[in-house]
Amino acid sequence: MRPAWAELERGGARIVWDRDRPTFLAKVVGPTFDRICRAWTATFAGPTVIGGAVSSVGRGRLSDPAARVAHEIDVVALDGRRLRVLGEVKWGQRLGAAALARLQGLRALALGRGLDVSECRLALFSGRGFAPGLRRLAGEDVILVDLERLYST
Fold first, then answer.
1. pLDDT tens digit string along 100-137?
2. Is 57 left (phi over 0), alpha (psi -120 to 50) or beta?
3. How close are the terminal C-alpha atoms of the chain, in Å?
4. For residue 118, what is the DSSP state?
């Protein structure tokens, strides 16, 4: 806030907020929501939701040499070499079929890295909810977590 201090002291809070809101959401709210979703996975989801025991939950990166890209993964839950959960987290965006397809592709990529993905579930976490029809597309291996589910567990 240091660069905006003078403007705030002059009563320009609305101007500062309008200008800096996207940065605040991206740099503070988004990463905080990511951490909350990882904590939910580690502490509150339980074995029945995530398909078994978990020894570690964090975020990860999965490289795809063929495409020459590294994919950031918001939630990764492991039990040894067994991948339990791959998750995508978005605070300000409704998630739909594209996010689910991305996770399905990442799960296939993880299989090529020597991880056991036979029981891996895909988790979509959204602060804005999900696209219509996504629940119908989601199978038993998909976990949809909106704010209601996140805070009612």
1. 999 999 999 998 888 899 999 999 999 999 999 888 77
2. beta
3. 35
4. T
Give the Cα-Cα-Cα angle 126, 32, 102 (nearest 5 degrees).
Answer: 40
Domains of the chain: 30-152 (3.40.1350.10)
- Angle among Cα 44, 150, 30 to the nearest 5 degrees reads 110
pTM value is: 0.88
Q: Decide if 110 contacts 94 (C-beta within 8 A).
A: no
Residues paired with residue 76 on neighbouring β-strands, in sequence order:
58, 86
Mean pLDDT of the chain: 91
Give the separation between CA 58 and CA 53, rounded to whole angstroms. Answer: 15
Tally Cβ neighbours within 10 Å of residue 50: 22
pLDDT over threshold 90, residue 82? yes
Given a cut of 80, is residue 139 above it in pLDDT? no
